[in-house]
């Protein structure tokens, strides 16, 4: 039986909100649009592309073509605008997130990012690091909810470093708070202690409204999945986590259909490799989500497969693969473009409410894997080793062919 790719929610309905219809769209705003392309005039969306650094430009160029084709088959036009970001922007303009890039992103209907960073800028001062540009972008777009699905596809179960019976069937979603906590908390900085020693310090801080809004996103998502939400914190030690647990518990009253549990982060890290199938939806703060989502991604075999969506209360969402810029393989046509292609599917589903076009892409990725196409990171004997471009072409072919009923 063909696998279904539950990128995020079981139902095809959007989890908690949808972005407004494209400004250029001739159609009235509606919460969910079912594309019946035949009679309707084409819809048009503006997409800001941020290829970034390393393998970013390679995977974005492939994903752009897939997005274009899937859109056109559903009566959707895209206007793409490519802007510099990260190291590329540093080289071009001296800053990692130029104002023009942020403003283009804010005006777009959705933003698709490749990856940022590289050896060249590693030693830069903090405000001149590519990563700082990414944090500024998240803050500037106010995308506080980061959705990171980790699904073990039957086709790739052997790529997992875990035993087959542990990895098989894992299908979880990490909902990470993205614009608060220790990443942004003040005070922060460098200084000296009473002994005159140099110190570095940061602040883990959460306000009630920040916890409440991420909690609601997570409960909505859990409700559309298997109805289980595990909140991960360190409430045995940290005050910010104590408030986190208190607020998550309070919000749970509005979601009686969702089964809520709490887990300390050290235990969660252990449980993820011990028995990952116990998890459905995980909600956690910025720093724990950063760490646990990398760990969860590895259960699936390759970080090169996993997409993400970052959403705010309104305005464009930011969609990006979880992987980094992989400077060691950049420019060699070796990158796996599937995480970015699947991020384009999340863009369609969560960012634009275009669920049919999203489904086309998800199915095409499964079809391509079923046909045995594999980039190096997911290769196993008996399959066809391809580069980034060829993988992209294979996906394009599958997007173009009728959606197999079994998927
Ligand atoms: C991620 C990355 C970023 C983060 C870095 C690049 C700033 O690790 O998206 O998980 O820490 O959030
Ligand atoms: Mg990370």
TrEMBL record:
Organism this protein belongs to: Hibiscus sabdariffa (roselle)
Cofactor names: Mn(2+); Mg(2+)
Domain annotation Isopropylmalate dehydrogenase-like: ranges: 46-395
Free-text cofactor note: Binds 1 Mg(2+) or Mn(2+) ion per subunit.
Subunit structure: Homodimer.
Pathway: Amino-acid biosynthesis; L-leucine biosynthesis; L-leucine from 3-methyl-2-oxobutanoate: step 3/4
EC number(s) given by UniProt: 1.1.1.85
Metal-binding among keywords: yes
InterPro entries: IsoCit/isopropylmalate_DH_CS, IsoPropMal-DH-like_dom, Isopropylmalate_DH
Enzyme class, spelled out: oxidoreductase
Signal peptide positions (record): none
Name of this chain's protein: 3-isopropylmalate dehydrogenase
Catalytic activity as recorded in UniProt: (2R,3S)-3-isopropylmalate + NAD(+) = 4-methyl-2-oxopentanoate + CO2 + NADH
Keywords linked to the UniProt accession: Amino-acid biosynthesis, Branched-chain amino acid biosynthesis, Leucine biosynthesis, Magnesium, Metal-binding, NAD, Oxidoreductase
Pfam families recorded: Iso_dh
Claim: DNA-binding is one of the keywords in the record: no
Alphabetical list of Gene3D superfamilies matching this protein: Isopropylmalate Dehydrogenase
Task performed by this protein: Catalyzes the oxidation of 3-carboxy-2-hydroxy-4-methylpentanoate (3-isopropylmalate) to 3-carboxy-4-methyl-2-oxopentanoate. The product decarboxylates to 4-methyl-2 oxopentanoate.
Similarity-based family: Belongs to the isocitrate and isopropylmalate dehydrogenases family.
């Amino acid at each position: 039986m063909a696998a279904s790719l539950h990128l995020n929610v079981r139902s095809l309905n959007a989890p908690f909100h949808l972005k407004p219809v494209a400004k250029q769209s001739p159609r009235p705003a509606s919460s969910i649009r079912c594309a019946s392309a035949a009679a309707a005039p084409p819809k048009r969306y503006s997409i800001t592309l941020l290829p970034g650094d390393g393998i970013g430009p390679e995977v974005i160029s492939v994903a752009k073509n897939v997005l274009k084709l899937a859109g056109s088959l559903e009566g959707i036009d895209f206007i793409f605008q490519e802007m510099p970001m990260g190291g590329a922007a540093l080289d071009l303009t001296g800053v990692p997130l130029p104002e023009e890039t942020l403003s283009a992103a804010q005006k777009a209907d959705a933003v698709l990012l490749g990856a940022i960073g590289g050896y060249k800028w590693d030693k830069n001062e903090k405000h001149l690091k590519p990563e700082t540009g990414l944090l500024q972008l998240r803050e500037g777009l106010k995308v506080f909810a980061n959705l990171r699905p980790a699904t073990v596809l039957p086709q790739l179960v052997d790529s997992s470093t875990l035993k087959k019976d542990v990895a098989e069937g894992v299908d979880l979603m990490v909902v990470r708070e993205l614009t608060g906590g220790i990443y942004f908390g003040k005070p922060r900085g460098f200084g000296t202690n009473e002994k005159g020693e140099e110190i570095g310090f940061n602040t883990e801080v959460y306000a009630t409204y920040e916890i409440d809004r991420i909690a609601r996103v997570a409960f909505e998502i859990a409700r559309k999945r298997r109805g289980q939400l595990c909140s991960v914190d360190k409430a045995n030690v940290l005050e910010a986590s104590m408030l986190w647990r208190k607020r998550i518990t309070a919000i749970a009253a509005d979601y009686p259909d969702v089964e809520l549990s709490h887990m300390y982060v050290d235990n969660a890290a252990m449980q993820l490799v011990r028995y990952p199938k116990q998890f459905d939806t995980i909600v956690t703060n910025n720093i724990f989500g950063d760490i646990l989502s990398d760990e969860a991604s590895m259960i699936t075999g390759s970080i090169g497969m996993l997409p993400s969506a970052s959403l705010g209360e309104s305005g464009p969402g930011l969609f990006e693969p979880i992987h980094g810029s992989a400077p060691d393989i950049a420019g060699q046509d070796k990158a796996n473009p599937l995480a970015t292609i699947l991020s384009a599917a999340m863009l369609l589903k969560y960012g634009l409410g275009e669920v049919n076009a999203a489904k086309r892409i998800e199915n095409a990725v499964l079809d391509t894997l079923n046909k045995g196409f594999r980039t190096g990171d997911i290769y196993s004997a008996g399959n066809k080793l391809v580069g980034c471009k060829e993988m992209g072409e294979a996906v394009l072919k599958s997007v173009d062919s009728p959606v197999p009923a079994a998927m």
